[in-house]
Predict the 3D structure of the following.
Amino acid sequence: MKIMQAIIFVIAAICAHSVTAELQCKLPAVEIPKRWITMAEPCTLKMRAQVQEELNAALTYMAMGAHFSRDTVNRPGFAKMFFESASEEREHAIKIISYLLMRGELTSDISTLIRNPEPLHERWDTGFEALTDALNLESNVTSKIRDIITVCENPSKEEDAFNDYHLVDYLSGDFLEEQYKGQKDLAHKLSILGKMLDNYGALGEFLFDKKLLYGELF
Ligand SMILES: *[C@@H]1O[C@H](CO)[C@@H](O)[C@H](O)[C@H]1NC(C)=O
Ligand SMILES: [Fe+2]
């Protein structure tokens, strides 16, 4: 009797084994060296946080685009400009994610990388107010990027920590350049709109919006 039980047990074990072997393929974990992953943790954390900053900016511009599209507001030039800015901010988030990937730093899950972003506001009383918000938003983003640079240049006192030249160069040359140009552009637009409002009152915003729509403002 004992022998019969043993045989049945062995047969059952073999069946169970072949079934699981057929249904799922369990490969051993692959050993990949980690020496190429060299970003210092404080620097990585700053970069991860910047993904969220860019998404917050994207959502704020998205809200501005939607606000100026409303039939009661109807400023298609402002709407077009802000929707384009929203796309650019989304691209910035993707660029930072790609950079983290290139440096081997996109291993942990993304739940801490992308949370629910919230726009700054959902309505703006005038185009001037939205442009002012946009310029302040960009100034805030610029200072966040400078913070990342400071941290990544001198990430910690640890022995293997080093000045992350490549990342610092990428942020200074690519991101800061775009920030400075964008800020100048918004400041110039505010200057033109301000003068038009002084001279033409409410008509100024209407005319400015048409200029924005047809790409006639520089
Ligand atoms: C910019 O940052 C300041 C200080 O953190 C904050 O009070 C302000 O709301 C931010 N402005 C924009 C437009 O994001
Ligand atoms: Fe950005």
Remarks:
- The chain has a mean pLDDT of 89.
- The CA atoms of residues 16 and 53 lie 51 Å apart.
